[in-house]
Amino acid sequence: MNKKQGQLLSERFEVAFNQVHEALRDIVQINDERFIVLVKIGAKKYQIIDTFKKDLEQYARLRNAIVHEKMEVGFYIAEPNAKVVHHIEKIANVLSQPNYAMSIATKRVVYFNHNDSILKVTDAIKEYGYSKFPIYHNKKCIGLLTAGTIMKWMAQNMENGMVNLSNIKVSDIMEFEKEHSIEIVSKDINIFEIENIFEKAHKKKRKIEGVIITENGKIDEVPLGIITAWDLIQIDYTIE
After folding, report:
1. pTM recorded for the entire structure
2. Cα 222 from Cα 200, distance rounded (Å)
3. pLDDT category, 132, cuts 50, 70, 90?
4. What is the model's pLDDT at position 80?
5. Which of 5-9, 12-16, 96-100, 191-195 has the highest mean pLDDT?
6. What is the rounded CA–CA span in Å between residue 150 and residue 117?
7. What pLDDT is stored for residue 143 in this prediction?
8. Does residue 163 register a pLDDT over 70?
9. Spatial distance between the Cα atoms of 43 and 47, rounded to a whole number of angstroms
10. What angle is formed at CA 116 by the lines to CA 114 and CA 117, rounded to 5 degrees?
11. DSSP of the chain, one letter per residue?
12. Are strands 132-137 and 112-113 parallel, antiparallel or unpaired?
């Protein structure tokens, strides 16, 4: 690598590093703006930052060498290779332009009205394999009905090994459903903001069963997608 190529790579590295630093400030939002602190705190809160934690810590050391140990104008004591530059540029792009939450949401949301027959719900469990269903009343989401509560209700109402569900409505079983914390958000929300919702609830020792996505984040809008904590766990942030 000649001097001009090395200088170009170092400049590209610095630009990408600064983009990452700015993105970390926006995502982590703490009073301490030091790069390494943002990485360490952010890795505890966000899966995406944890994925890149080791790389970013190494890049911080390289950046210090590039910036603080420059021998003369245009000459760096340490120079990143093309592979490193390409990788940090990809990380900068991921952090600066996060995916919308809809990209990880279950988009076919199966939901019911509180006056629907419970048989519709059991059919949906069989067809889709879902275990949680948003329930609406007067066009507003009033909570979630879970397969577990349906099973408990059936066990308590069984006679001679049989349960008659023909006249049972969703509302009958919702009376036995414990309150499930849900959040309703706009389709414009990104993945970092979704992770933050779950993180804040966790700090308050409050479990969120699901985040429902609607057009404008209003309780009386049709659900476009639903996200659970399990969806966050399955996100793959790896990049080549």
Report:
1. 0.72
2. 25
3. confident
4. 85
5. 12-16
6. 12
7. 87
8. yes
9. 6
10. 125
11. --HHHHHHHHHHHHHHHHHHHHHHHHHH--S---HHHHHHHHHHH-HHHHHHHHHHHHHHHHHHHHHHSEEETTEESS---HHHHHHHHHHHHHHHSPPBGGGTSB-S---EETTSBHHHHHHHHHHH---EEEEEETTEEEEEEEHHHHHHHHHHT-BTTB---TT-BHHHHHTTPPP-EEEEEETT-BHHHHHHHHHHHHHTT--EEEEEEESBS-TTSPP-EEE-HHHHHT------
12. parallel
Contact 125, 110 (CB under 8 A): no
- 225 vs 3, residue with greater confidence: 225
Using only C-alpha atoms, what is the Rg of the chain?
A: 25
User: What's the mean pLDDT in 133-139?
Assistant: 91
The owner of tokens 């979630």 is 144
Going by C-alpha positions, the residue among 137, 109, 129 that lies closest to residue 226 is 109
